Amino acid sequence: MSDGVSGSASSGGTMSAANVEPAGEAQRLLGELIRFDTVNPPGAERAAQEHLAAHLTAAGFACELLGAEPDRPNLVARLRGDREGPTLCYLGHVDTVLADPAEWNSAHGPWSGDVAEGYVWGRGALDMKSQVAAETAAAAALARSGWRPARGELLIVAVVDEETGGALGAEWITREHPEAVRCDMLVNEGAGCVFEYAGARRYGVCCAEKGVFRFTVTTDGVAGHASMPSMGENALLKMAPLLARLGARQPSYELTAEPRAFLAAIGEDPDDPAGSIARLRAADERLATMFEPMLGVTFAPTRISASEKINVIPSRAVLKVDCRAPPGLGEEQVRRAIAEVLDPTHPSNHSATHPEEGFRIEFTERVVGNRSPMASPLMDAISEWISERDPGARTVPTILPGFTDSRHFRAAFPDCVAYGFFPQRHQSLLQTAPLIHGANERIDVRDLAFAAEFYRDLALRILG
Ligand SMILES: [Zn+2]
User: Fold this and answer.
1) Taking the model in full, what pTM does it have?
2) Which residues 6+ apart lie within 8 Å of 351 measured at CB?
3) What is the percentage of the chain residues whose pLDDT exceeds 70?
4) How far is the centre of ligand 1, averaged over its atoms, from the C-alpha of 92 (Å)?
5) Is 183:378 a contact under the CB 8 Å cutoff?
6) Which of 57, 114, 304, 383 is the most buried (most CB within 10 A)?
């Protein structure tokens, strides 16, 4: 472990920089970060941010804390090179979702940061204090070794408030201080856990995130006294066939560039998405569950309301549907998908038995998905590193069904290439996914080391 401050080191020390070992530092830093309770709301991230700022300042970074609220500053840490060049930004968030200690292994609670059984335990061990710790440790170790970018600059940006949408975090800082966080390449959360398929190891690189087209479905009826059920016209019962249709199917696949590239990269046929998903499902149901949403618009009904009173037949019922659409698809495609699934007169619903019922659709959120090009020098650097460090494995582009802070950076800096990538080779995607936002969140210490080495090597590759 190279924790000693080498004050006499000079710039251009790339040989020694390549040999710095950030693993131990990343592990210690992750434990420290977990022990700051940053459950959002309320977040209260200041103490954690000051801790990171002190760590990076001591290593040689110029640090700023910029926030909309005193208790919730964002950290921008900068290491400039000698010449003009690209700005590489490592982005992370230090807030977490809540955790109920009663649901956790009593020996290693959500704010323990314990190292035990080969894991670091605690809320944020995966989402995403691990990545913040790995990025910070790698950057600090490089800076302490005397390394400075030969060109461009390295930015570490740790934001607050991601888990509730980023209003005080990434959204705020890209709007209020764009010059502080402007970057050409960005690495954030979103993918990177290894998965095996068809005998090969693959690492997802998240190139895109789905958009949100949430809508309500409203049915109308006539109010009446519930003691005489046929007196009125029950709007809630008119929802039954609509719910049945939502439960029976999703809209047809509509493959954009990313899922086509994904299917090709895992050895499947982009022109046969149904067959591809069937084969994924046969290999492991969970792979199909995780990857199928990339292939088109999805609907998930999540809330319903009707009569306010138990004894009144409702004249109106409202169903809320969470709808996600891949980047490249917008309201027009979503409306087509709604008609396909819900409209009884649509050709796809020839077996529908209630051609008379009506409903209304209203959008409550319309946010198109965001993406970065799949081919770029940053992708090349990531892919080369994976093939060197895990021979035979390869990277595959993925779309996140949800969204991250990357969307704010892509919106603020249209030329910025942003990917989600935190490489894990021991703790696989199938092991990791259920722990995110779940009980007993933990990360394999070998993966924390693997990731920290990746962030070290990526900075050296991109910035020299
Ligand atoms: Zn996260």
Assistant:
1) 0.92
2) none
3) 95
4) 8
5) no
6) 114
